[in-house]
Design goal:
It contains six helices and ten strands. By secondary structure, the protein is α+β, with helices and mostly antiparallel strands. It has two domains: about 130 residues, Rossmann fold; about 90 residues, Formyl transferase, C-terminal domain (Methionyl-tRNA Fmet Formyltransferase, Chain A, domain 2, Roll), CATH 3.10.25. Helix 2 links the parallel strand 1 and strand 2. The C terminus is likely disordered.
Length: about 270
């Protein structure tokens, strides 16, 4: 506890005693931040105003779920943003009070975008709380026809399938940078690709074939075009730019990167 502010840390929020503790504080409004568990009705409606606010990192109803940032990048969305909504029983389906949109940078990673959206969310929540305090807040129901799902990211989602076009693979690299890091299989080891660019031009080699050169020093054949890694990391190693990586762990020209998912990822 700091500044005499009580801190409640219940093991489960669905217990009646936790709801009683909240009501004892006589809160006017509740704000939920990065909370993935289900909140029962007695918690959602505990404040005097009868609801909780949450800032979700997407332009709802697009990308409801646990991983909206990654899914927006994977889909090639030009913009995303923050939606301040009322928390309801169905995840991320509550009516929306405020939306703040922002473009997604052409080379922006999920990590960088998450930082920008966190700052945007803080400002948006503050604005919504002020509106609620002044009885000026208004909610608009989401259109379920426009809803898309952003389920939790699994390890397999970060694996690169070189049969895909190079532009799609670059999006996958960005969506999983800096963590867990998009990866491919090099022999018996996983290889993280933390940054990459797409090169135009038909690849006559089978997808996953590595070719060496001067500019770029390393490129990988894909289903459409070439993937040029800019930053790599081997298992147990540290992230390196491609030229530095090749000095310590050189590739053979014509080597193939396989699609088989590794048992473990680099740490």
């Amino acid at each position: 506890m700091r500044n005499d502010t009580p801190l409640l840390r219940p093991e489960r929020v669905d217990r009646p005693e936790f709801a009683a503790q909240l009501r004892a504080f006589e809160p006017d409004l509740g704000v939920v931040v990065a909370f993935g568990a289900f909140l029962p009705k007695r918690i959602r409606e505990a404040p005097r105003l009868g609801y909780l606010l949450n800032a979700h990192a997407s332009l709802l109803p697009r990308w409801r779920g646990a991983a909206p940032i990654e899914h927006a990048i994977l889909a090639g969305d030009a913009q995303t943003g923050v939606s301040v909504m009322r928390v309801e029983r169905e995840m991320d389906a509550g009516p929306v009070a405020l939306v703040r949109a922002t473009p997604i940078g052409e080379d922006e990673t999920a990590g960088a975008l998450a930082e920008r959206l966190a700052a945007l969310a803080a400002d948006a929540i503050a604005e919504a709380v002020e509106a609620a305090a002044g009885d000026r807040i208004a909610f608009e129901a989401q259109d379920p026809a426009g809803a898309t799902e952003a389920p939790k990211i699994e390890r397999s989602d970060a694996e690169l399938d070189f049969r895909e076009p190079a532009v799609a693979l670059v999006r996958r690299v960005r969506a999983f940078a800096p963590r867990p890091g998009a990866f491919a299989q090099r022999g018996d080891e996983p290889l993280r690709i933390l940054s990459a660019r797409a090169l135009a031009g038909a690849a006559a080699d089978p997808p996953g074939t590595v070719r060496l050169g001067d500019d770029p020093p390393l490129r990988i054949a894909t289903g459409d075009g070439w993937l040029a890694p800019l930053r790599l990391q081997r298992a147990g190693g540290r992230p390196l730019d491609t030229e530095s990586f090749l000095r310590g762990r050189p590739f053979r020209d014509g080597e193939r990167l396989g699609p088989r998912a590794p048992a473990t990822l680099p740490t």
